[in-house]
Amino acid sequence: MVGGQEGRPREQLAALYEIGRALNSTLEPDEVLDLILGMTLDLFSADAGSIMLLHEGLLRIHRARGLPPEVVEKTVVPLGQGIAGWVALTGEMLLLNGRIDDPRFRNLVRRDDEISSSLCTPLRSRQGVIGVMMVRRAGSTPFSRSQLDFFASVADQAALALENARLFRSEQERSWQLAREQQKFQAIFRDMADGVLVIDPSDRIAHLNASARRLLDRAGEISGLCLAELLPRFPLELVRETLKTQSEPFEADVTLQSGSGNSVLRVTATSLGPCPVEPEGLVLLLHDVTERVRVERMKSEFLSAVSHELKTPLTTVSGFLELMLNREYDRPRQEQYLSISLAEAQRLQRLIEDLLTLSRLESGQFHLQPGPVRLDRVAAGVLSGFSERYPGFSFKLEVLGEIPEVQGDGDLLAQVLLNLLSNSVKYSPDGGEVRVLVRAENQSVRVSVEDQGIGIPRDKIPFVFDRFFRVDNSLTRSTGGTGLGLANARYIVEGHGGTIWGESPGEKGSRFTFVLPCERKEPQESEA
Ligand code: ADP
Description:
The chain is α+β, with helices and mostly antiparallel strands. It has helices at 9-24, 29-43, 69-74, 82-90, 145-191, 210-215, 227-230, 236-245, 290-326, 331-362, 375-389, 410-426, 474-478, 485-495; strands spanning 48-55, 58-65, 76-78, 94-97, 117-125, 128-137, 195-199, 205-208, 250-258, 261-271, 282-288, 371-373, 393-400, 406-408, 432-440, 444-451, 499-503, 510-517. It is elongated.
């Protein structure tokens, strides 16, 4: 012990060595502070002491021995105020002997405390003062000046240990944070909907996520494969060349042929290298744009179809009107020309109505005007018009069971049937039978329209309800149509809470069915 008497240099060295050893045993900042304070009190035979740490210009007691808890809790000393504040500000140490009346002690020492002397020194790190250590002694033996120097050496050692512990802690936190970031990144990489492929400098796959595997339609091991084997149409050379001179990502749409059909991937390539001049690896982001490309293509096909559809009847109408203006025709000839013009004008009107219906349905401006509707009656009404107009067909209506009312908009539901029947006629070049079947089911009414026409290839059936979609065959090319009829029918049926679908064995005949929900009336109990 160095405390009571003057500590001799050799003893002091030994004590410092001991402190150093003890402090090296832990890297927990709080444990370091506890050790420092405990050993310092022992070494200096002090009966109370504290370590205050400086944070944002305020000193607070972090560790204390022999001080009342309320003092420990409440003491907050601004830099420059009180003894501790002065020591922290000036970086000088203090030895205060005798009973301490100094008002600067007001916060740290009670008036009635018997204090013979006190040592106070700054804790200094490389960045400057980080805190203050104080010990005090009651009784009659005050600290000596040489003890003050030794106290300062202990404090230096303590500050160093504290700094190391803090450094270690912040390094530890940094590496935890890095690990957390890495986990987060891995989770994003694993779960993101877009595919990610990392290509090494020799163009081989270094990493890929599950979405990339799915988009590339590859189940087995693909790490180490060449990119060209996976995405043969990706212009890798061009991308590498471009990324040498540009820092923005390179984008390309790549068509991929796989077992499940053609898909289009938008590939965004970024260099992984430290500088864009010499790319080391590449990160490719894969986004499935098959649907978007399909819709865009359909839209442009639709636009050309619409212009054609609008132009043809207009040309006919204006041609005949011009003829009649320029020449005198007899009555039968006039009637013939006028009825052709009328039919063409009506075709034009239908097309425009289809377009308007679609745009209203799509923009949600359609308001159903529901009321009780008997679908068998609607079917009979629509069919009667067809029988007159298409004598080459045999139209049949079959009604099974007592058909309950559905709640719906009668005009719109008639429109659905009209679209289905028009298609049956349009796509049955040899005429034949067209059968409409209306059947009551448990809580719904089912309506089917069946024809003996050209049928629909199986792989095209899922798309026939898409806007603008038309099966590409010679008949659709020569028959007027916009690919809107079934899209409109689906909007209307689904707007009534129903479902609609199409079936065809492929080469001959199609059946389109829709089902609408209905509230079946429970049979009334006969009144007693
Ligand atoms: P469109 O104006 O072309 O008739 P629709 O939306 O009514 O448009 O139909 C979409 C496509 O579905 C048609 O172009 C046609 O290829 C196919 N289709 C619809 N109904 C039938 C049917 N009854 N028989 C054969 N093909 C049909």
